[in-house]
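A quick aside before the break. I want you to see a complete sequence-to-structure record at least once, exactly as it would be stored in a machine-readable document. Don't worry about memorizing anything.
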Amino acid sequence: MLAESYPFYLANAPEAPNADLEVFDKYSGEVATRVAMAAAADIDRAIAAAARAARPMAEMPAYARKAVIEHCVNRFRERFDELAMSLCIEAGKPIKDAEGEVTRLIDTFVIAAEESVRLGGEVLPLDISPRAHGYRGYYKRVPIGPCSFISPFNFPLNLAAHKVAPALAAGCPFVLKPASLTPVGALIIGEVLAETDLPEGAFSILPCRRDGADRFTTDERLKLLSFTGSPGAGWELKAKAGKKPVVLELGGNAAVIVDADADLEDAVARIIFGAFYQSGQSCIGVQRIMVHAAIYDTFRERLVTATKKLKKGDPKDRETFIGPMISEKEAQRLHEWIEKALAAGATLLCGGERDGAMLDATLLENVPSDAEVNCEEAFGPVANLFRFEDFEQALDMVNDSQFGLQAGVFTRDLYKAQLAWDRLDVGGVLIGDVPSYRVDNMPYGGVKESGLGREGVRFAIEDMTEIRLMVVRTPA
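That is the input. The structure line, written in tokens, reads:
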């Protein structure tokens, strides 16, 4: 179970000036714990401390940074069950999914430990013409400085880790605002970091209200903003961020193509995972399913049968696959989208019922292209089936979206796989799998409304470091 209350972390140290933020058990609706909320003055102190920590963090030797990250790995392994249960309670995540996220948290920190001792550079030949005779160039990567991180509710541990772990590896102090709906996971990370000998001010983890979070974006002492969340909020923050670089991991409307030669049993199993894993609350959750006409009817029958078998209920039950959405408000919003699509001519294949924050795993077909449940990000347990006649038509259907995060393609044809990689306007193409799959060392991010930049530890480190050149002249 969760502790009775949790402090925030300011300049590496716990502070509990209040316990104002109530964190609810997303299944029972009861208050599970209370968390300290940071005020504007606290945020200002944290940013000032991060600015002071910039040089000590940059001067930490690689082995010391690695040791800090390895300490986190060891402690996360020791606290595995506690971390999983915190996700189960505060995020409503089925326990098996919660355990999967803790495993990924550990993976992300393991990767960061490895990358922390690989921050190299290059010897740059400059003698490209006679005027540069006697000159040599060298460059290395140096920390960008204090970073600002804002993480979302759907992966409270691992999406925070994808900001925190690269910052530690790169030598950047940071301030982190976790989602108010799910702050506990990030605060446990803070509790573990507080056990290390990081320089004072190296990290602050501060739940706060939105009106107080403006400093995370606008303060010029912060040299990078990395935000994961909704497109509307992300682009608004980018407009306010000033001169600092901004990395945005935003929404999606992920599609998967099932070609005529696909293994249907395998495709159905993977799409069930991709569409309904943690109640569809993933920006790479399968929302649009394009199926070749030759296999459409058979595929639809198998997918509907498998969807109806999914057990919904208490996320603490190991047999539960569909848990609650993050709030009743979000479940109501998506249920209304489903009802609007049905009123506009869509066909309900299964699901469609809501009880509070619990929404059935839902499949639709004949969904109008302009229906919200098709063209916006559903972020819940609903997917739409479409029929196509030829592969290039399917690629065009996938691209007919304002989003472009990842796409999946089930085909045995190498040439079609390559064509999909060439043509799909997304950040990643997965062949033989759903777009919902991610390994934590791969470049991850999107195009169009899905964001800017890439995460994945090595690629995040590139954003958190800058190239510094040195030129040496050897006199004649």
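Two observations worth writing down. The first helix runs from residue 40 to 59. Residues 394 and 454 are 26 Å apart (CA to CA). We'll return to this after the break.
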